[in-house]
Amino acid sequence: MAILNVYSTFTIRMLNLSLTGTPGVGKTTLGKELAQRTGLTYVNIGDLAQEGQLYDGYDDEYQCPILDEDRVVDELDEKMVEGGMIVDYHGCDLFPERWFHIVFVLRTDNTQLYTRLESRGYTGKKLQDNVQCEIFQTIYEEAMEAYSEEIVHQLPSNTPEDLERNLEQIVQWTEQWMKDHN
Protein backbone atom coordinates (compact mmCIF):
# COMPACT_ATOMS: atom_id res chain seq x y z
CA MET A 1 0.00 0.00 0.00
CA ALA A 2 2.82 2.44 0.81
CA ILE A 3 4.32 1.93 -2.64
CA LEU A 4 0.96 2.77 -4.24
CA ASN A 5 0.71 5.98 -2.17
CA VAL A 6 4.19 7.10 -3.18
CA TYR A 7 3.43 6.31 -6.80
CA SER A 8 0.07 8.14 -6.64
CA THR A 9 1.71 11.22 -5.18
CA PHE A 10 4.30 11.15 -7.97
CA THR A 11 1.63 10.74 -10.64
CA ILE A 12 -0.70 13.42 -9.32
CA ARG A 13 2.14 15.92 -9.25
CA MET A 14 1.85 16.17 -13.01
CA LEU A 15 -1.74 17.47 -12.93
CA ASN A 16 -2.59 21.18 -12.95
CA LEU A 17 -6.08 22.62 -12.60
CA SER A 18 -7.60 26.07 -12.53
CA LEU A 19 -10.43 27.23 -10.30
CA THR A 20 -11.89 30.43 -11.65
CA GLY A 21 -15.03 32.52 -11.40
CA THR A 22 -16.33 35.86 -10.22
CA PRO A 23 -15.10 36.96 -6.78
CA GLY A 24 -17.30 35.41 -4.08
CA VAL A 25 -18.24 32.16 -5.85
CA GLY A 26 -16.25 29.92 -3.49
CA LYS A 27 -12.95 29.29 -5.28
CA THR A 28 -10.81 29.61 -2.17
CA THR A 29 -12.98 27.36 -0.01
CA LEU A 30 -13.07 24.71 -2.75
CA GLY A 31 -9.37 25.04 -3.59
CA LYS A 32 -8.11 24.66 -0.04
CA GLU A 33 -10.29 21.62 0.64
CA LEU A 34 -9.37 20.11 -2.72
CA ALA A 35 -5.67 20.48 -1.91
CA GLN A 36 -6.20 18.60 1.36
CA ARG A 37 -8.06 15.76 -0.36
CA THR A 38 -5.75 15.37 -3.36
CA GLY A 39 -2.28 16.40 -2.20
CA LEU A 40 -2.08 19.04 -4.95
CA THR A 41 -0.52 22.39 -4.07
CA TYR A 42 -3.03 25.23 -3.73
CA VAL A 43 -2.05 28.71 -4.96
CA ASN A 44 -4.29 31.74 -4.47
CA ILE A 45 -3.10 34.33 -7.00
CA GLY A 46 -4.25 37.22 -4.81
CA ASP A 47 -2.11 35.95 -1.93
CA LEU A 48 0.84 35.24 -4.23
CA ALA A 49 0.66 38.77 -5.64
CA GLN A 50 0.42 40.31 -2.18
CA GLU A 51 3.36 38.31 -0.81
CA GLY A 52 5.57 39.14 -3.80
CA GLN A 53 4.19 42.65 -4.37
CA LEU A 54 3.39 41.61 -7.96
CA TYR A 55 1.47 44.79 -8.72
CA ASP A 56 1.51 47.39 -11.43
CA GLY A 57 -0.23 50.26 -9.66
CA TYR A 58 -3.51 50.85 -7.87
CA ASP A 59 -7.06 51.15 -9.20
CA ASP A 60 -8.77 53.99 -7.31
CA GLU A 61 -12.19 53.24 -8.81
CA TYR A 62 -12.22 49.60 -7.60
CA GLN A 63 -10.07 50.29 -4.53
CA CYS A 64 -7.60 47.48 -5.25
CA PRO A 65 -4.07 46.92 -6.55
CA ILE A 66 -3.57 46.19 -10.25
CA LEU A 67 -2.03 42.78 -10.85
CA ASP A 68 1.21 42.67 -12.86
CA GLU A 69 0.15 39.65 -14.94
CA ASP A 70 3.56 39.10 -16.56
CA ARG A 71 5.31 38.95 -13.19
CA VAL A 72 2.67 36.55 -11.84
CA VAL A 73 3.14 34.22 -14.82
CA ASP A 74 6.94 34.43 -14.46
CA GLU A 75 6.66 33.71 -10.73
CA LEU A 76 4.53 30.57 -11.26
CA ASP A 77 5.89 29.15 -14.51
CA GLU A 78 8.48 26.79 -13.03
CA LYS A 79 6.01 25.35 -10.51
CA MET A 80 3.40 24.88 -13.22
CA VAL A 81 5.87 22.98 -15.40
CA GLU A 82 6.59 20.66 -12.45
CA GLY A 83 2.84 20.17 -12.02
CA GLY A 84 0.57 19.30 -9.12
CA MET A 85 -0.98 22.75 -8.85
CA ILE A 86 -4.44 24.16 -8.13
CA VAL A 87 -4.54 27.81 -9.24
CA ASP A 88 -7.32 30.02 -7.81
CA TYR A 89 -8.00 33.36 -9.50
CA HIS A 90 -11.01 35.31 -10.70
CA GLY A 91 -9.57 35.47 -14.20
CA CYS A 92 -7.94 32.78 -16.25
CA ASP A 93 -7.09 34.21 -19.65
CA LEU A 94 -3.77 35.60 -18.41
CA PHE A 95 -2.37 32.09 -17.86
CA PRO A 96 -0.76 30.07 -20.67
CA GLU A 97 -3.02 27.39 -22.13
CA ARG A 98 -0.25 24.79 -21.64
CA TRP A 99 -0.49 25.16 -17.86
CA PHE A 100 -3.84 23.46 -17.27
CA HIS A 101 -5.29 20.01 -17.81
CA ILE A 102 -8.72 21.20 -16.68
CA VAL A 103 -10.43 24.50 -15.84
CA PHE A 104 -13.39 24.69 -13.45
CA VAL A 105 -15.52 27.85 -13.60
CA LEU A 106 -17.60 28.22 -10.44
CA ARG A 107 -21.01 29.87 -10.83
CA THR A 108 -23.26 31.35 -8.15
CA ASP A 109 -26.82 32.66 -8.17
CA ASN A 110 -26.70 36.46 -8.58
CA THR A 111 -28.75 37.23 -5.46
CA GLN A 112 -26.51 35.04 -3.35
CA LEU A 113 -23.38 36.49 -4.96
CA TYR A 114 -24.58 40.03 -4.23
CA THR A 115 -25.00 39.13 -0.55
CA ARG A 116 -21.58 37.46 -0.37
CA LEU A 117 -19.80 40.42 -1.99
CA GLU A 118 -21.67 42.94 0.13
CA SER A 119 -20.57 41.06 3.26
CA ARG A 120 -16.96 41.41 2.03
CA GLY A 121 -17.39 45.17 1.89
CA TYR A 122 -17.89 45.52 -1.86
CA THR A 123 -19.96 48.59 -2.70
CA GLY A 124 -20.98 50.73 -5.65
CA LYS A 125 -19.45 50.08 -9.04
CA LYS A 126 -17.21 47.25 -7.77
CA LEU A 127 -20.24 45.37 -6.41
CA GLN A 128 -22.41 45.99 -9.47
CA ASP A 129 -19.67 45.12 -11.98
CA ASN A 130 -18.89 41.82 -10.27
CA VAL A 131 -22.56 40.80 -10.16
CA GLN A 132 -22.93 41.78 -13.84
CA CYS A 133 -19.82 39.76 -14.63
CA GLU A 134 -21.60 36.71 -13.19
CA ILE A 135 -24.89 37.49 -14.96
CA PHE A 136 -23.17 37.76 -18.33
CA GLN A 137 -20.96 34.67 -17.75
CA THR A 138 -17.87 36.78 -18.43
CA ILE A 139 -15.39 34.44 -16.72
CA TYR A 140 -16.87 31.38 -18.41
CA GLU A 141 -16.62 33.06 -21.82
CA GLU A 142 -13.01 34.08 -21.11
CA ALA A 143 -12.18 30.49 -20.18
CA MET A 144 -13.85 29.16 -23.34
CA GLU A 145 -11.79 31.59 -25.46
CA ALA A 146 -8.51 30.97 -23.64
CA TYR A 147 -8.60 27.16 -23.44
CA SER A 148 -9.83 24.15 -25.38
CA GLU A 149 -13.53 23.88 -24.68
CA GLU A 150 -13.12 20.19 -23.71
CA ILE A 151 -11.21 21.17 -20.58
CA VAL A 152 -13.56 23.97 -19.40
CA HIS A 153 -16.37 22.95 -17.03
CA GLN A 154 -18.93 25.02 -15.13
CA LEU A 155 -19.86 24.00 -11.58
CA PRO A 156 -22.69 25.43 -9.44
CA SER A 157 -21.47 26.94 -6.18
CA ASN A 158 -24.49 28.05 -4.16
CA THR A 159 -24.79 25.70 -1.19
CA PRO A 160 -22.66 23.51 1.09
CA GLU A 161 -24.12 20.56 -0.84
CA ASP A 162 -22.78 22.05 -4.09
CA LEU A 163 -19.37 22.40 -2.46
CA GLU A 164 -19.36 18.74 -1.41
CA ARG A 165 -20.57 17.57 -4.84
CA ASN A 166 -17.90 19.67 -6.55
CA LEU A 167 -15.21 18.28 -4.27
CA GLU A 168 -16.31 14.72 -4.94
CA GLN A 169 -16.52 15.32 -8.69
CA ILE A 170 -13.08 16.93 -8.92
CA VAL A 171 -11.43 14.32 -6.68
CA GLN A 172 -12.99 11.60 -8.85
CA TRP A 173 -11.78 13.33 -12.01
CA THR A 174 -8.29 13.69 -10.49
CA GLU A 175 -8.18 9.98 -9.63
CA GLN A 176 -9.25 9.08 -13.16
CA TRP A 177 -6.62 11.39 -14.61
CA MET A 178 -3.99 9.61 -12.49
CA LYS A 179 -5.14 6.20 -13.74
CA ASP A 180 -5.08 7.40 -17.35
CA HIS A 181 -1.62 8.98 -17.09
CA ASN A 182 0.49 6.55 -15.09
Tell me, briefly, the overall form.
Answer: globular
Structural class designation:
alpha/beta
Strand order of the largest sheet: 2-5-1-6-7
First-last Cα distance: 16 Å
Estimated radius of gyration: 17 Å
User: Helicity range of the residues?
Assistant: 40-55%
Query: The biggest beta sheet, please?
Result: 5 strands, parallel
List keywords for this structure.
disordered N terminus, five-stranded parallel β-sheet, alpha/beta, 182 residues, 8 helices, two-stranded antiparallel ribbon
What features would you describe in this structure?
It is a single chain. This protein has 182 residues and is α/β, with parallel strands linked by helices. It has helices spanning 2-12, 27-38, 45-52, 69-82, 110-119, 124-135, 138-146, 160-180, and strands at residues 16-20, 41-44, 55-59, 64-67, 85-88, 102-107, 152-156. β3 and β4 form a beta hairpin. Mean pLDDT is 92; it is low at 1-13.
List the helices and strands and how they pair.
Layout lengths: L1 H11 L3 E5 L6 H12 L2 E4 H8 L2 E5 L4 E4 L1 H14 L2 E4 L13 E6 L2 H10 L4 H12 L2 H9 L5 E5 L3 H21 L2
Parallel strand pairs: 1-5, 1-6, 2-5, 6-7
Antiparallel strand pairs: 3-4
Helix pairs in contact: 2-8, 5-6
At a glance:
The protein is 53% helix and 18% strand. The chain has helices at 2-12, 27-38, 45-52, 69-82, 110-119, 124-135, 138-146, 160-180, and strands at residues 16-20, 41-44, 55-59, 64-67, 85-88, 102-107, 152-156.
